Amino acid sequence: MAWIYLIIAGLLEITWAVCMKLSDGFTKLVPSAITMLALVLSFVFLSLAVRTLPLGISYAIWTGLGAAGGFIAGIIIFKEPASALQILFLCLVVVGIAGLSFFNPHH
User: Is residue 32 part of a domain?
Assistant: First the structure.
C-alpha cells in the first residue's frame, strides 16, 4: 500500500505544480485552491508512504516523479519547448527512479 501512496503523492505533486502555473501567481481562485489542496494531499500521502518505505528512496521517487511529470506537463499543456538533450536527461531521471524502486530491499 505504501507504494500506492507514494505514486499518488507524486501525481499530486505534478497536479499542484501545473495548477500553480495556471493560477497566474495565485491571482486565479480555482487553480490557486487546487494548488493548495493538491500540495497538502501530496504531503499527506508522502507521509503515509514513509511510514513503511525508507525516507531516502521515497523522497527521491516523489521528487523525481514531480520533476519528470512537471517537465512533461510543461511540454504538453503549456507547449514549452524541449530539446532532444533535455528529453534524454529526463529519460535518465526516469531510469534512476525505476532503479531506486527496483533495487529497493523493502520492495
Answer: yes
CB crowding 52-86: b at 16 or more within 10 Å, else e: ebeeebbeebbebbbbbbbbbbbeeeeeeeeeeee
Dump pLDDT digits (tens) for 56-75. 889 999 999 999 999 999 99
Is 107 inside a domain boundary? no
How far is 55 from 47, CA to CA, in rounded Å?
9
Model confidence pTM above 0.70: yes
The boundaries of the domain holding residue 97 are: 2-102
Q: What is the pLDDT of residues 75-107, one digit of tens each?
A: 999 999 999 999 999 999 989 888 887 887 665
Query: For residue 80, what is the DSSP state?
Result: -
